[in-house]
Amino acid sequence: MSFVEYGDTIKDGDTAIVFLGHESMFPVKVHHGTVTQTKYGVIRHSTDLIGKKYGSRVTCSKGGWVFILHPTPELWTLNLPHRTQILYSTDISIITMMLELKPGSIVCESGTGSGSLSHALIRTVAPTGHLYTVEFHQQRAEKAREEFREHGVEHLVTVTNQDVCKNGFGVSNIADAVFLDIPSPWEAIGHAKSALKTEGGRICSFSPCIEQVQRTCLAMEEHGFTEINTLEILLRVYNVRTISLQIPDLGKAAEDNSSTGFDNSDPSSQGSSCWNLQQGTAQFKSGVPLREMVGHTGYLTFATKT
Amino acid sequence: RKIIFEKQWFYLDNAIGHIYGTTFEVTSGGNLQPKQEVEETTTETKEAGTDNRNIVDDGKSQKLTHDDIKALKDKGIKGQEIVQQLIENSTTFRDKTEFAQDKYIKKKKKKYEAVITIVKPSTRILSTMYYAREPGKINHLRYDTLAQMLTLGNIRAGSKMIVMETCAGLVLGAVMERMGGYGSIIQMYPGGGPVRAATSCFGFPKPFFDNLHEFPLSKVGSLLSGTFSTETLPSEPEDNSLVEEESNGLTAGKQASLQETEEDSTTETSMEINETEEQETMDINAEDVEFKENKEKANVRIFIVRERKQRERRKKLIEAAALLREKNADGLIVASKFHPTPLLLTLLEFVAPSRPFVVYCLYKEVSRICCFRFYSLSLTLFCCVTCLFFKPLLECYTKLRERGGVINLKLSETWLRNYQVLPDRSHPKLTMSGGGGYLLSGITVVLDKGKSDASNLEALKMEEPSSKRCKVQDLDC
User: Fold this and answer.
1) Where are the stretches annotated Disordered (chain B) (predicted)?
2) Which of B49, B70, B168, B265 has a beta carbon 3.0–4.6 Å from B198's, enabling a disulfide?
C-alpha cells in the first residue's frame, strides 16, 4: 500500500479503511497481532486482514461484516484525525484543477494543518513532483511528517516549521503553484510570488470571509498577479429514495377509468401501472437533497503570475 | 496562417518566441505586437458625481456620431485613443459616479482595444473554454464537475484507467494530463473510432500516447463472453464489414447486459433495459452510417495505406483486449451521451476491487422530453415531477445496488459561484446551477457469490414489485 500507488493485498504496516456501511468508516494501521473493535465484533489483523485483497469482505467475530478498502486521499480526508479545520474533496478538486497540477508539478502549501489537502496534492504531483508545505505550529508539523512517513509518501514532501508570512516557503523560483490557507494570506502574497518560478505559475488562496478575500485580491494586484478570479463551490448530495404520494380523491371515478383505458391502448405507455388506484398512491424514485448541506466552506481566489 | 478570433483576424507568426501569458495587440495588418504595461491614463477621472439624479437618458450624451467613430477606426487610430475621445465627447461622463465611470471605460476598452493573451493549454483552460463555447460537444459537463470526476476517480500517475466518453476527448485529455504519461488508459469508443478533437488541443508529447489504448464498445460483449477473437476482426476493407459488425456487436453487447442482469434479477427488468437501449442504438446507427459514408469515400483513395493502418489497429486492439481481460483496472470514468446503466454494469466487470468509479450524466434533455410527453397525454403536472430529475443515474443507482459489488454510492452535484471582488463593490457574479450535470460515484468491492447473496436476493425479491413498477413508469416518460 501507498497513497500514491495501488496494491492488491493488505500488508503489515499498511493503513487501511474499514467500511462499516452507510458512510461510516474509520482508518486502521495494520499490524500483526493487533485487534480492532467494531460494532460488528473484533477484527484480528493477522488472520482477518494481512494477505487479503483490498476490497474484500471481512467477517467479524459477531457474524457481521465490513469491507476493507485501499486508502486514497479522498477516503483519508473523510477519516483523518482532525488537528484543524480541513479542506474537503469538493474544494480540493477545483483547487487541483485550477492550479493546473499534474505529475511533476512543484507545489508550495501553507499551512499544512491536518494534511487533508497535502495528501491530495502529493497524489497528483507524484512520482516526479514535490510538495513544500509550511506549518508554523510545531506539533502539527511533526504530526504531519509522521503521517507522510507512515503513508509512504515522505520522499514527495518537505514539511517546514516556520511562519510563512514572515519567513516565506523556504524555497524560491521553483514552484508551479502556491496554495494558501492561512488567516492573513495577503501578508504571504509577496513570499508566494518569490516561491513561484520566474516564468510564472498559479496561486490560490482559501478564505472563509469576504474581507479576507478583498485584502488578498488587493495584495495580488499590487504584486502584479493577473487573471484574478474568486469563486465558491458547493456540493449537493442526493439520497435516492422510493417515494409514494397519495392521489387526491376528486370524486371523478368515471374519468379516471377512461384515462386508464387510454393508457392501456397505447402499447408504449404502461405508466398507469405506477398509479396504484386501489390504494390511491403513486410511487416513484427520487433524488432527495439531504436535509442539511454545507452552505459555505470558503472563497477560493485564483491568480496567475506571468 | 490566418486566424479569426472574436471578429478579429491576425497572423500568429509574431507570437513565436514569446513566453506563455504574453499579451498582444492586434494591429490593422493582422500583426501581433506585444503590449507593454501602460500607466492608466486616469487624468480627469477625479471629477465625478455622487448619484445619477440629474442624468437623463436623452440619447444625445455622446457627441461623436456613428460615422465619426467609424472614421476614427478606419484611420487605424489606436483603440486607446478612441476610448479617450469617446470619454471627452461624453457630456454625462463627468456627472457619473466614480464607479460608473470605471465601468464605462471598461466597457469601451473591451470594444475598441483589441488585445489577446496567448496561454498554455491545460485542463483548466480547455474545459472552461469548451463549457463556454461548445457545451453541446461535451454534454454540458461543467469544469467544476470535471474537476470532481478527476478527484473522485483518484486519477494519478501509474494507474490503469478505463475511460468511456463522448465529450470530444476532453475528459480523456484531462485524465491524460493527470497521469502525466505514467500508467495506461483504455478508451472505450462507440462507432468507428474514438473522437479526440479536444485531446489534441492539449499538445501532449508523443510518449503520452504510447500507453493510450482504445477498444470498441461494440466488442465488449464478445470480450466478456469469451467469444472475442482476432478472426472476428475486420480483415477486408473495413467499411462494409464494420457496419455489419457494428450492429452485430451492439446486439452482442445487449445480450451480454441481458445475461448479466438475468443473474440477479428477473427477465422482465432486463427487458426494460433493452428497451431503453434500443432508443440509444438507433441514434448510434444513424450517426454511424453518416460517419461510414464519409469514410468510404476516403477509403477508395488510400486503400493500401489503410491496409497497413488496419494491421496496426488490429495489433493495438489485441493489446487493449488483453489489458481489459486482466480485469484489474484501477478505475472507471464514464461521461457520455449514452444511457449510463448498461455501460456501467458492463464496464465495471473490468475494474479491480477497492477502486473508485465515476459516472457523469446530464439529465436535462431527458426531463424535457419527458415533460413534453406528459403534457401531450394531458396528465397532471404531478407525473412530471416524478421523472423530472436524475432519471438515468437514479436507475443506475438502483441497478448497481441490485448487482452488488459496489459501496459508498453517492449521487451528487456541484454548484459554482463566481465573485466580483473590487473595493466596495464585491458581490456574486452569476450562479451556475443545474447545467453542470450530476455525478454518481462509488467504490468497487469483491463481489461475493456466497450464502449472503441468497439473502440479498430474497431482499431483492421483496423489493421488486415496487421498483419494477417505477421503472416501467420511468421508461414511459
Assistant:
1) 39-60, 229-280
2) B168
